[in-house]
Amino acid sequence: PDGSLLLTACDKDVQIWDARTYAPMGQPVAYPGGLVTAGFAASGRMAYVAHSKGVELWNARTGERVGSGVNAHFPVYAAAVSPDGTRAVINSVIPPSPMPERALHLFDTRTGREIPQLPHIDWAVFAAFSPDGRRLLSMERVGMHFARFHVWDLASGRDLFPPIRTSSSLNCPPGFGTAPGVFSPDGHRVALVGSRRFAVFDTESGTRLAGKGPPYDDEDSSADGLAFSADGKWIVCIDNRLGTSLCDAATAKPRADMAYVPDAIYSFSISADATRIACSYRVGRGVNDVVTATGIFDLLTGKLLHRLGDAEDGIPALSPSGDRLAVTGTGTRKDETTVWRLLEAK
Fold first, then answer.
1. CA angle centred on 168, ends 223 and 220, rounded to 5°
2. Closest to 134 in 3D by CA, of 161, 111, 157, 102
3. pTM for this one?
């Protein structure tokens, strides 16, 4: 969060780097199984990796293991770690079924003990903690074209209000940098994808605060991902049918003076003020496959500021200050991360 460290992850290990000198901080942390997600917790003091066999945490600067982590009995499908690193939520695929469980499992990462189980009626495919770690947002699939969102009080293990059903054909689990639902920075609101783009709800009562309410019936305009600006005033709406736009969080309406970013976006990172988006995006189709690139767009004008190279599936991450961009999987070396220092576009 302070921009001093950079974490990169692959299917075998995680490495932390000094973000000023780009020297490795200690040895890579190896783990069994395939990568699910990785990141920082406890304001950057801890790092974590969730993989197909569980969740592990360690001191981001010393490499010392923190707590017992989580050992999963079955292959992990999706996972999330609380902001303070003390809790983790996972769900699994129980063979021979190819689909995830109809439940989320919450663990204390210090002891490895499971706390409550959060039951779902349908397949649970996504989870995200609130900024204070007291609540959890989860999404379950309802058939092929609908989703149901829950906001849980983790102290009691109960829904705070009846689940919210939306129309959404979002592929799950969501890829890196995309999210079908997101808490506002203060945790008092939650934005959820659905047809007619998205809507914003109060996390205490479930009251809709902005956006078109249910029933959702326009599947052609379902959003693909959401992100709040750091001050909570704006929401970036990733919509690969209508175009990515910067929306007022109070009204859920796009800014009238902006242009849409036109291309399909696969993974993204936004600047703190939500005026720029770094993304892997589609630029056309080749002879046998889709052609993609990695670049930075101005969200107010839709202008491409920087094209940083061609990539099949580059995953970008802007630094907190917005002056650097790390991209994994660009150019001819898909196993490397490139760091770019950003200059003003001419």
1. 65
2. 157
3. 0.90
